[in-house]
Amino acid sequence: MRFPSSATRRHAIAFAVAALGVASTASALAQAWPNKPIRLIVPFPPGGPTDTASRVVGQKLAERLKQPVVVENRAGASGTIAASFVAKSPADGYTIMMLATPTLLAPHLYSSVSYDTTRDFVPIATVYDLPIVMVVNPSVLPGVTSLPQMIDKAKAEAGKLNYTSSGPGSFGHLTTEMLKDLGKFDMQHVPYKGGTPAVTDLLGGQVPMMYADLVAALPHIQAGKLRAIAVGSPQRVSMLPDVKTVAEQGFPGFDAVSWGGLLAPAGTPKDIVERLSTEVKQILADKDVQSRLLNAGAIAAYQPPADMATRIRGDFDKWGKVVRDKHIVAN
Fold first, then answer.
1. Is the domain of 290 the same as that of 152?
2. I want to staple 103 with a disulfide (CB 3.0 to 4.6 A). Which of 79, 177, 224, 303 is the partner?
3. Which is it for the CA torsion 184, 190, 195, 196, positive or negative?
4. Is the overall model pTM greater than 0.85, yes or no?
5. Do 149 and 185 belong together in one domain?
6. How far apart are CA 156 and CA 136, in angstroms?
């Protein structure tokens, strides 16, 4: 029998001591955390649902952690500027980000993205779902009150009907393209630079249909200027309880929900991630928080780190296939 040499034993002991040192440092960091302000990076401008959710959750986190949570907007390129910044930040729990679906999918649409969504971050918790709704201009399509009627109209006027979205590769664009394949109908995409001009031309009748964020469409639905004919989520939404889901209208299993959740740089100590996740769970259980999110068009939706990781991978793969199959690129 051969025994390890003394040199080998010394190397093994040194490696074990080093590993214990790293573990001890991470443990000490987690125990001392937080002892200074936390930066919450938002990848979009102020005012939208992602920003609102970040400020609501950030305020409550600050109260619970007894440290300021500073919300910092770093908008641009579907959130890739913010994500690149966070991916390179110290993994110490003092820089976190509100991931939103456009930022998750951006690596499929931009050739110069410098981060890997599944490798460079660790999930903390999902925070909200942002339902999307198919709406039509009732003056342009007076006879369309359901998804089957919309599909029949598109088939009867093959290639002549248009739909709009907030831009190439937007979630509304991808969702409509996937639905076109499932329903075997065709409509031409007319992209805009942002949701506001798209909705404006929808209201004006320049385009007849859009898959829109509920937050953008709801006031016009309530005013009767737009008609909601389907929601993309698996369940109906409380703001539009009488509007059927896509799944209920002939497409079982259809699931298209934009969402947001907190991430930290890869390597952030597990104890810190678990603490943040626990705090977010408690925050989202608060009825006042749920109401404030709902007023912004978002639905509080907590999932722990493991489930969020599964959701990230599932959506990344599902919508990435649509991007590749349709040869979609962002402008």
1. no
2. 79
3. negative
4. yes
5. yes
6. 17
